[in-house]
Amino acid sequence: MALTTSLAGRVRNTTLPKTHALLPLHEAVVNGIQAIDARFPDDAAGRGRLTVRIHRERQGAFDLSAGSPGRAPLKIITGFSVEDNGIGFTPDNMTSFETLDSDYKAGIGCRGVGRLLWLVAFDRVEVRSAYYEGGTLAGRQFRFSVSQDVVPDDAPDGLTDAGSSVCLDGFKKPYQQSAAKTVEAIAREIFEHCIWYFLRDGGAPDVFVSDDDETFSLKDFVEELGHSETAAAFEVKGQTFEMLNLRLKTSARNATPRLHWCAANRVVKDESIAGKLPGLYARMKDGTSTEFTYVCYLSSTYLNDHVRADRTDFDLPERMAGDALIDEPTLEDIRTGVLQEVSKALAEPLASAQVASKERIHQYVSTKGPKYRPLMKRIESAGIVVDPSTKDADLEMELHKHAQRIETDLLAEGQAVFADSSGDKPEDYDERLAKYLETVKEFNQSDLANYVARRRTTLDILAKLIESDGNGKYAREDRIHELLFPMRKDSNEVGVDASNLWILDERLVFHDYLASDKTLKNMPVTDDASTNRPDILATRVLEPDLPVLASEGQKLPLQSIVVVELKRPMRNDATAEDKNPIAQCLDYVARVREGKAATATGRPIPSSAQEPPAFCYVIADLTPTMERMCKLSGLTKTHDGLGYFGYIEPYKAYVEVISFDGLVNAATQRNRAFFDRLGLPLS
Fold first, then answer.
1. Where are the beta strands (DSSP E) in 356-497?
2. What does the alpha-carbon distance between residue 576 and residue 597 come to, in Å, rounded to a whole number?
3. How far apart are CA 499 and CA 514, in angstroms?
4. What is the mean pLDDT of residues 268-281?
5. Which end of the chain has fewer CB atoms at under 10 Å, N or C?
6. 3-state class (DSSP) for residue 582
7. Within 10 Å of residue 454's Cβ, how many Cβ atoms?
């Protein structure tokens, strides 16, 4: 009893991912190249010619997804035709075509399933071919579809030479939408799939991709690569693998080093191997300092035997868990072998890249990441290597990951050390403890460096905020306010790290209560019902037993009030009754003193401190109206001319008016010793 095969069933069971939408076209091109090889075995590159033509809808619909500024949208692709001057559909080739899963061309890696892929992505196929039989030129043409299988037509007229034309028509929408749209993109995809033929000894025939009046030659892409190549071979578990190592001219298209897995002279899949070896990145340099990107094409009889029928992957496990019954290479085994050979082929460029990586890391740490400096020995010992062209943000993330690993190991070691601290200690206990404490010290230094670096960044941001834009306008005061302390918050709602009041006065970091842009009636330190909002108000309570001022043994508990008022840079309206920041500060001080004062936790303030000292800071540029208010308040100008200060007796308040430039300068000078110690540049 003979078995029969259903073409519809075979097509239905043939897999073609949408990500490989042009694979049927690639198969037609490979068939054409092989037909040319068969006709011109000694001169395929010199005499062979193959043309791919893109067919589009003539009118009506446009593919808007491919449109770009200044360029008309592309019409939808309906199909392709592939024309070659190869051996043609000889009787043997035709018999093979009509036999599903034919092994007629198995010797060159063919599986006899390419035409099934045609019918997965296209509604129908039309073939017109001429071939020589007994010295006479003969021809045939036929249609091929799921519904009708192979339907012969009358022999073609006007034959002049051997060759074939395969028309793939009726591009199915799911694949059409996923495929490349422009002629250049399609040409490059065909080239990348068939690159083996162009790099082999003897080269490939002339291959063109045409779309109306625009044509690309695939040989131009070979010249564009600007490549040099070497070959290598290695064995894994008794299987031999061949490598073609290419050094390609670095470009936007050659963005990363890649490994191309090949079977049957075709690229089946590829993957990035960037960073798989220390120093293996997109831009490498050879002995002449010329930049290149490394690409490897891997082939093997073993890969040919294990390629899937749809040629989109291999029937090989990624790795083998436990002991395998058959000791065959996995993908991981093969990849490991490839990387070992790559390390030999690129020994000098890899070493050069590692040196450049080290310089890049140290440059970043010295200028922008000083917090990592105490940890650099440990980070480098962990084997960190980065692409010298990596962006600062990506480098920061990489260093942070390494620091986190070190900290995790530190915590685990600390637990182990302290667990061994009781009872009989191990012989190496003292050495482990010393090593642990040294690492803790390094992390403490890193935390301090990070804190100082944040101060440098904060001052840089403030300096930018007080600059005018291109139109002579300045930032609103709320942006500066948020930098110093979040608006409409108090110290019960935000942590200490949220405040940058050290810019104004280091003592403001230590406070009992601090409020930012909150009404007086909503502050727990006073029961004033006013809805006025001081920009920033802080109180500090000193414990009764804390000797702050001493005279004949007396100890006085003191509470201080600090009010900060901000004005927009270059604002010049301080003469208005409700715009005078000095008067506003003094009014807030009086209102706080008049309230029934308490600490933020509700503790009453001792009665001897009902008129606590007050400090008022006004941050404003010294515009004419602001200078006038300073003089009317009896304030004295500072020696650098960037502010005013004085004590206003009726309010028992010290008042300081500081320009924005003076604020940045003073904060920078106070922290300069720390910045210099970390090597942070001054703006």
1. 489-490
2. 31
3. 10
4. 88
5. N
6. helix
7. 13
Dist CA 163 CA 160 (whole Å): 9
CA gap 135, 156 in Å, rounded: 18
Gap between the Cα atoms of 255 and 636, Å rounded: 63
- At 401, which amino acid appears? K
pLDDT tens-digit profile of 93-118?
Answer: 888 887 766 555 544 444 557 788 89
Rounded to whole angstroms, how far apart are CA atoms 1 and 390?
A: 67
| Digit-coded pLDDT (tens) for 200-228 | 778 889 999 999 889 999 988 887 776 67
Left (φ > 0), alpha (ψ -120 to 50) or beta: where does 289 sit?
left
**Nearest residue to 610 (alpha-carbon basis) of 585, 624, 592:** 592
CA-to-CA distance for 674 and 449, rounded, in angstroms?
9
Q: Report the first-to-last Cα separation within the chain, whole angstroms.
A: 90
Q: Which two tokens stand for residue 639?
A: 């020696």
Pairing of strands 653-658, 614-619: parallel
Sign of CA dihedral 662, 665, 666, 667: positive
- Report percent pLDDT > 70 for the chain: 71
Which residue type is seen at 498? Answer: A
559 burial level (CB within 10 Å; 0-12, 13-18, 19+)? buried
Beta carbons of 116 and 11 less than 8 angstroms apart:
yes
Tracing tokens 């490549």 back to the chain, one arrives at 227
pLDDT tens digits for range 595-623:
644 444 454 444 444 577 888 888 888 98
φ, ψ at 152 (rounded to 5°)? -70, 145
Instruction: Name, in order, each residue with C-beta under 8 angstroms of 183's C-beta and a sequence gap of 6 or more.
Output: 54, 209, 210, 211, 214, 215, 216
Sole residue written with tokens 């040319």? 36
Q: Are 264 and 112 in contact (CB under 8 A)?
A: no
According to the model, what pLDDT value does residue 665 have? 86
